[in-house]
Design a protein that fits this description.
The complex is a heterodimer of chains A (about 120) and B (about 110).
Chain A lengths: L3 E4 L2 E4 L5 E7 L3 E10 L6 E7 L5 E2 L8 E7 L2 E6 L8 E10 L7 E2 L3 E5 L1
Parallel strand pairs in A: 2-11
Antiparallel strand pairs in A: 1-3, 3-8, 4-5, 4-9, 5-6, 7-8, 9-10, 9-11
Chain B lengths: L8 E5 L4 E6 L9 E6 L6 E6 L4 E2 L4 E4 L5 E6 L8 E7 L15 E6 L1
Parallel strand pairs in B: 1-9
Antiparallel strand pairs in B: 2-7, 3-4, 3-8, 5-6, 6-7, 8-9
Chain lengths: ~120, ~110
């Protein structure tokens, strides 16, 4: 139980375009979802926290207009990287907590490798 | 911000116990200690968590000192598949979602 599915696993996009990453909770209701970014050989950095039906709360230094987060349902959150640039290339990971299937801590998705060329 | 300190790297011989330490001297009374691991290019995987008592599950054991200022994750019989970065996380007190903040972790290499 408590499975989080993240798609796509890899994406390559051109500089200036936007990319959407989906995070779905498959067997539980995710009342809260978290988005992380991880650069090579570095740890995970929390970008934002989103509660279903509410605006996301962004960590200091994260541009909310660049990283659009939507958490419109209890099973889906999306992260849209707008006007992507090469420096946005990174590993993006979501995690979720909620009711129904969550027992221990938070479950993480498998991550999305974004490459902006 | 992460409230934990871990050694950056460790080696362990295959089949032997791997003991990964973590310092969390500023832990609050109602904060749990969680351990996750991340195998290269994958999402973090939950291992174990505890409050003040030692815990054991099918993956590992967690030993928390009496003053709760440090803990040790024990993988009893390390295999090559246990090579990963191990993160010790103290869950912060928060009214807005109990975020997980990751520290730098320990890169464990299991040697054949």
């Amino acid at each position: 139980g408590a499975v989080v599915s993240q798609h796509p696993s890899r994406v390559i996009c051109k500089s200036g375009t936007s990319v959407k990453i989906e995070c779905r909770s498959l067997d539980f209701q995710a009342t809260t979802m978290f988005w992380y970014r991880q650069f090579p050989k570095q740890s995970l950095m929390l970008m934002a926290t989103s509660n279903e039906g509410s605006k996301a709360t962004y960590e200091q230094g994260v541009e909310k207009d660049k990283f659009l987060i939507n958490h419109a349902s209890l099973t889906l959150s999306t992260l849209t990287v707008t006007s992507a640039h090469p420096e946005d290339s990174s590993f993006y990971i979501c995690s979720a907590s909620g009711t129904g299937g969550m027992v221990y801590g938070y479950t993480f998705g498998s991550g999305t490798r974004l490459t902006v060329v | 911000d992460a409230k934990t300190t871990q050694p950056p790297s460790m080696d362990c011989a295959e089949g032997r116990a791997a003991n990964l330490p973590c310092n969390h001297s500023t832990i609050s009374g109602n904060e749990y200690v969680y351990w996750y691991r991340q195998i290269h290019s994958q999402g973090p995987q939950y291992i174990i968590h505890g409050l003040k008592n030692n815990e054991t599950n099918e993956m590992a054991s967690l030993i928390i000192t009496e003053d709760r200022k440090s803990s040790t994750l024990i993988l009893p019989h390390a295999t090559l598949r246990d090579t990963a970065v191990y993160y010790c996380i103290v869950r912060p007190r928060s009214n807005t979602g109990n975020q997980f903040y990751f520290g730098t972790g320990t890169s464990l290499t299991v040697i054949p």
